[in-house]
Amino acid sequence: MKKLSKGARTDLLTYAGVIIAFIIVSVLKANGGLNRSQTGLLVPICCYIVMAVSLNLTVGILGDLSLGHAGFMSVGAFTGIITAMSLASLIPSAPVRLVLAMIVGAFFAAVIGFLIGIPVLRLTGDYLAIVTLAFGEIIKELITCLLVGVDSEGLHIIFNVSGSKTANDLNLLEGGKVIIKGAQGATGTKTIASFTAGFILIMITLVIVQNLIRSRQGRAIMAVRDNRIAAESVGINVTKYKMMAFVTSAALAGAAGALFGLNYSNLAATKFDFNTSILVLVFVVLGGLGNIWGSIIATVVLYILPEALRGFASYRMLIYAIVLIVVMLTTNNPVLKTWREELRSKFGKNKNKEATDA
Description:
Layout: H1 6-30, H2 36-40, H3 42-62, H4 69-86, H5 94-120, H6 125-144, E1 146-151, E2 154-159, E3 177-181, H7 195-214, H8 216-226, H9 228-233, H10 238-261, H11 274-287, H12 292-308, H13 316-331, H14 334-357
Antiparallel strand pairs: 1-2, 1-3
């Protein structure tokens, strides 16, 4: 029997861990083990896990610092909402509309990612971070100017740059519905997102990202990260592989955004501001750059932590900040790193010895 490689074993353990977590949470939910507040966190947690894993592809695997990831999420959210709402009369099945919304959200986010990537990926370091931050804010402001409605004649879209137009200017026919109201965002959205859909999206994301990392293209992307000049010298098309990672990351963020948007009846573009991008980046950094399993754990823990600390009232965010600092100092402590490596190597030796004895 062919022995699995270390990477394959890690991937399988990641899949198994997510599946086991889904089963446990589903059982708790079905038996009333989760209250209403905790149940309401399930879909957002799934969305942020996808966001963290996809951003880790750009930051950890590609090695480029992107601060505009929330912009791709917002594109997916609002295009997904428009898709689901406009197809409500044609496709009565909510799960089918949700799937279509996520596909459309991923497609448009990928297109925006490609267009942004053309000028942005020529930059590196701080310049890249600043420009992606600017693009994220631009996307948010553009969405704020949108007025979108639907009636029997189809979609009606107004780009309200002057701010003088209202939903009445859409001139919808009787029975028409306004989907996006400019600065107010999407209102009256029928919530069709589900925890099951979030779990499936996480699994799809993991399959895409981990297979990309293990592939020839993934090795080329990591070669670009490690030494761009050396990669170019052996014939690797740097722009091509950077674009591949960036667009894939944007598409996954768009799908997560569509799921996120369809989990709320009201959603404004201001939700996807700079702070959201930083929040996702914190998940990635604390989980470990390039560590997919770490991104998942960090996202779950850090998203739940503020809610778990609500009993401390005004001190909860202070405690949350202290926990972040302690975790950062702990994970980057050289003594603790050496101790972890020694434990890991010792455990590995014992495991190999047991296998040899057997």
